[in-house]
UniProtKB/TrEMBL annotation:
<keyword id="KW-0812">Transmembrane</keyword>
<dbReference type="GO" id="GO:0016779">
    <property type="term" value="F:nucleotidyltransferase activity"/>
</dbReference>
<feature type="transmembrane region" description="Helical">
    <location>
        <begin position="6"/>
        <end position="36"/>
    </location>
</feature>
<comment type="pathway">
    <text>Lipid metabolism.</text>
</comment>
<feature type="transmembrane region" description="Helical">
    <location>
        <begin position="199"/>
        <end position="219"/>
    </location>
</feature>
<feature type="transmembrane region" description="Helical">
    <location>
        <begin position="131"/>
        <end position="153"/>
    </location>
</feature>
<comment type="similarity">
    <text>Belongs to the CDS family.</text>
</comment>
<keyword id="KW-0548">Nucleotidyltransferase</keyword>
<dbReference type="InterPro" id="IPR000374">
    <property type="entry name" value="PC_trans"/>
</dbReference>
<keyword id="KW-0472">Membrane</keyword>
<keyword id="KW-0443">Lipid metabolism</keyword>
<feature type="transmembrane region" description="Helical">
    <location>
        <begin position="48"/>
        <end position="67"/>
    </location>
</feature>
<protein>
    <recommendedName>
        <fullName>Phosphatidate cytidylyltransferase</fullName>
        <ecNumber>2.7.7.41</ecNumber>
    </recommendedName>
</protein>
<comment type="pathway">
    <text>Phospholipid metabolism; CDP-diacylglycerol biosynthesis; CDP-diacylglycerol from sn-glycerol 3-phosphate: step 3/3.</text>
</comment>
<keyword id="KW-1208">Phospholipid metabolism</keyword>
<dbReference type="Pfam" id="PF01148">
    <property type="entry name" value="CTP_transf_1"/>
</dbReference>
<keyword id="KW-1003">Cell membrane</keyword>
Amino acid sequence: MKQRIITAIVALAIFIPILILGGVWLEVAAAVLAVIAMSEIFIMRKRIIVSSSFFVSAIGVLLVTFPDSYFRWLPSFISRLDLIYIAVAALLLVTVATKNRTTYDDAAISALSIFYIGTGFHNLIAVRNDAGLDTLLFALIIVWLTDSGAYFVGRAMGKHKLWPAISPNKTWEGSIGGNVVALIFAAIYLQFFPQMYSFWPMMGIALVLSVFGQLGDLIESALKRYYGVKDSGKILPGHGGILDRFDSLLLVLPLVHLFGLISLH
């Protein structure tokens, strides 16, 4: 527990100023986190990260992560999606070059990870730099309070398992408790930092973000259970890896975009 607390304090001392500064600071941080998260996918699968497959995957995840402004130099007939396609095609070519030591399945997992990880971190940048710090904090704190509320309510009252095949410690009581804690926070937060929609639509969005935050956690749990690992990585002592800490946000932050909270600002 002591190690977890120390790691959390150090991580927040680094992460919070970057969120406040935004701009290029956050863009660089998100890019680094995305590449580390991609490396965790490779390590969980017991694949070598010093390889052509990882190099192409890292390039691919950066192409998805970076903001649109990074691609203004492209000629009009080429889009970011074209570059991502080239990266995916390169993954397929690696299967030929390695004589199937890297397989089609390997390429498919890398391609899926490129979009899963890259889209999440892309929207971390977009929410902060385009919608503003108050909107990003709205999403972040909902996720954090859902997680904390679910943990404490689950420990105090949890009896009915939520999804034991994937995450045996989670309970329905904890899940609902996390939603309630998040909604209480959202109601208070919106009084001081109103968002683009009126109160009740934002409360509905808060509930959806809270639910999908827990689903993001379950996705990561399913991934780790499938590969037989406890944590996605060891970069954060006591907390695991980057995917362990950002699993909920990789699902929640794209939803902030889909709800129009970025484009409306």
